[in-house]
Amino acid sequence: MKHDIIPAIDLRAGQVVRLAQGDYARQTTYSDDPVALAESYAAAGARWLHVVDLDGAQSGGLANLPVIEALARTGLRVQAGGGVRGIADVHRLFDVGVERVVVGSVAIRDPQRVANWLDRHGGERFTIALDTRWTDDRWMLPSAGWTRAEARTLDELAPWYAAHGARHLLCTDIDRDGMLAGFNLALYRHLAELAPALSVQASGGVRSMADIRAVRGAGARGVILGRALLEGRFTLGEALAC
User: Fold this and answer.
1) How do residues 62-74 score in pLDDT, each as one tens digit?
2) Which of 95, 115, 187, 195 has the fewest other C-beta atoms within 10 Å?
3) Over the stretch 188-203, which tens digit does the pLDDT of each residue have?
4) 55 part of the active site
5) Is 131 designated active site?
């Protein structure tokens, strides 16, 4: 089974940043040159790049679209999202070279609309982002950059999307994101049982090579690497060789 190691670039006001547990008030800025960072990832052997428009995720709209377009010109295959609310946003991302559009908030609030997009463009062109937080004994799915509570659950939507043509699912345990606490392996084992047809990308908390190996063993087929790479806990080359 093929596994992808996917470096991530989170954009806010055109800069490379990370938020602790999705909190916009707890930002660390790492670089003001996201294109140079992406080029370094490509030189190290990456094939894919995961891009999040944090401004768009918070307020809607593709606030960092020119930067995303520049990133798509680096030769990396880009999956990008944050602020995708309608089909016009999807087409704008496709038009600037994004290969897979990541849909999060709209995928939670209006699944049927996203199912129509899947039917129109195919499951390979989208990554469904169901970022989750354990609340009241359920995996809940907050939206709007993790700032708005929603009623739907992971157990409801993951199999629903698998049945409606989705191929790729990105799932982050929000409480571990940016915390270097390791992956929530129980979450990914649960997803592998819940929706085995989906190719799951694990995100949130990776700190070591051992975490990458462990989450693959838990059923994930892709690993998103953010803070651990930015802070040099290991190199992308080491992760790709893992």
Assistant:
1) 999 999 999 999 9
2) 95
3) 999 999 999 999 999 9
4) no
5) yes
In degrees and rounded to multiples of 5, residue 162 shows phi and psi of: -60, -40
CA distance 73 to 19: 26
**In the predicted model, is pLDDT for residue 147 greater than 80?**
no
The domain of 182 spans: 4-240
CA–CA gap between residue 240 and residue 132 (Å, rounded)? 27
The single residue of 10, 55, 177, 211 carrying the catalytic annotation is 10
Map residue 163 onto helix, strand or coil.
helix
Could you tell me the CATH number of the domain that includes residue 236? 3.20.20.70
3-state secondary structure of 233: coil
Cα torsion through 163, 110, 171, 17, rounded to 10: 150
Task: Give the predicted TM-score (pTM) of the model.
Answer: 0.93
Catalytic residue among 89, 131, 173, 177: 131
Total Cβ atoms within 10 A of residue 39: 16
Instruction: Count structural domains, the chain.
Output: 1
